[in-house]
């Protein structure tokens, strides 16, 4: 049987099965179990209505407990045990975690994950917001939005393959099929190269450092006031943002200085994915490319929801378009921005496919999910692999809770 | 000084002309009310003055300065929106100081202006609250406060009371009247569809209909000397009764024989040439009185509505005629189902030919 036909049949059986389950179970409840007729009609209706929600929820609850809740418990158990050669398990306590924390690759993965965590949600949300605002009132805005949204429909692996071609490298005497190298080879060390590869990137890095500083200042400033309206619960968050900002500013300034002094290898095709530190960013671009569409769609809807008259009031008050955007529109959709941000953050913490397909964690691009896969399925070390999985879950959970809390607040 | 002048102002959306030939002079210190039925363009006209809508034709000046292309913030206007349009993420204080911050005023100036406006509007206890923690009336006051702090030449109000409940509406209407009283030199333009607001607040009323100005005048002018049938029926509640007839006697007083068999005398003078002219007479319900002489109208009372201080009598329709309504002082439910003959003081009988009052020809 052709795979396409197989797929079709699977879809029909799957969807049909669901519909049939809901239809017939409902029918059974109403016609056989508690029919709304006879001497006990009223009592039967009440009972049927009490059972119905459980009937409809049951498939989802069973599937979630078998495929989600149980694996969590099992993974926790596995992370505390070790396989005994010849079969069976042995309780080892936190040995797996200790072993994992001794591995440099784990710390590399954790560090890279943190970098992903900062860069990807920020860039996706920023680009998404920009695209949503810019495409809002123009005739071909919807076309632009469709194009930007399209990567969402591509699987991560598919996107990774596409971008692998973008970063592709051929020997110097052959024609380059990767666009990065094609552009790179156009630079020859003249003034144009200096402008595009040194001055502009350095300005960009300095601008980034300044932006980070401003954001951090907004977060930290209320704590410095003697009687500011700062809730005690937000202090750890504010300190965290401050610390992250200091680190980011340090990193960007260091990169800027390094770039000024760097002797760039003009005319030589580069294998982009093997350049340490920067290759992580090349991988991040893929996820940003995918997630920007998601952020744009949600934020575009939120922007449309900003009451028109508050914008008109701001116009009458003399605000310019930038002030209207940053002081009137953005604050009003801040809740949605937070939800988008945290949703992407969760995606980022779980990122696996892109790294797996493009660099497989080599050349210092390891991330936690790929590290876990490595340990579980390549090294067959179920103990350490499960421990890595638990670390990922531990990192995701607080963000997930915050995300759900914010999403619910938005809906109210 | 803040004189507004609109010369042949027009508004068109593509092919569709919404407003045309708007000519209006507004003097310093006036409170001008735009009234008209829904869709007559009154809000559009206000938004053109504010600068939120482009002016498609004609010229609009403030103090002699052409404003057509001037951005809203530089026109010296402030606007109060129907839905208040408060910035939901800012406290009352920030809402009121936003415009001043944008204008880069010093903090001391801003604080002083906000404190002054808050005092006038009794908003001092609420300055640090968010709009969502305020009642409708308080929000409306904040919206007004946001205008006051800017000390504009012209205040624009776009149906500011329509989102308030009846009791609050009356109270806020009074507050706006007092506010106007305390700022005799500020010019205000006020859009409403509520004629009570128009009659009570306005220095002059502009009645808009059919894409143009129907009449401009003081509230009493509009009530006593409406220029056309539209204004006559729009101002006053219930609307003025119109009855068709023919002029049978001209001179200082005009006698009209009505199609319903009645006869009316009006103190509107007519020329000899008007003999036989088809006219509509207009009599306000409150001007109809029971009479023993030749009645203007005679009919059976179908429904009475006793409102306490007055009773509204609705007469049975005869054929396709409009329903005649009379308003009598006191309570008169006993006249229901009886036949009543009504007359009126000639001075209160208006005459319209082709929809235009004969007073104004």
TrEMBL record, chain A:
It comes from the Bacteria. Its main location: membrane. The keyword Transmembrane applies. It holds the Pfam family BPD_transp_1. It is a multi-pass membrane protein. It is found in: Cell membrane. InterPro entries: MetI-like, MetI-like_sf, UgpAE/MalFG_permease. GO terms for cellular component: plasma membrane. The keyword NADP does not apply. It comes from Pseudotabrizicola alkalilacus. This is Sugar ABC transporter permease. GO terms for biological process: transmembrane transport. Keywords: Cell membrane, Membrane, Transmembrane, Transmembrane helix, Transport. Residues 110-403 form the ABC transmembrane type-1 domain. Belongs to the binding-protein-dependent transport system permease family. The chain crosses the membrane at residues 6-29, 50-70, 114-135, 147-166, 195-219, 239-261, 281-303, 333-358, 382-405.
From TrEMBL, chain B:
InterPro entries: AAA+_ATPase (IPR003593), ABC_transporter-like_ATP-bd (IPR003439), ABC_transporter-like_CS (IPR017871), ABC_transpr_MalK-like (IPR015855), ABC_transpr_MalK/UgpC-like (IPR047641), Mo/tungstate-bd_C_term_dom (IPR008995), NA-bd_OB-fold (IPR012340), OB_MalK-like (IPR040582). Residues 4-235 form the ABC transporter domain. Keywords: ATP-binding, Cell inner membrane, Cell membrane, Membrane, Nucleotide-binding, Transport. GO terms for cellular component: ATP-binding cassette (ABC) transporter complex, substrate-binding subunit-containing; maltose transport complex. It comes from the Bacteria. One of its GO terms (molecular function) is ABC-type maltose transporter activity. Belongs to the ABC transporter superfamily. This is sn-glycerol-3-phosphate ABC transporter ATP-binding protein UgpC. It comes from Pseudotabrizicola alkalilacus. The gene is ugpC.
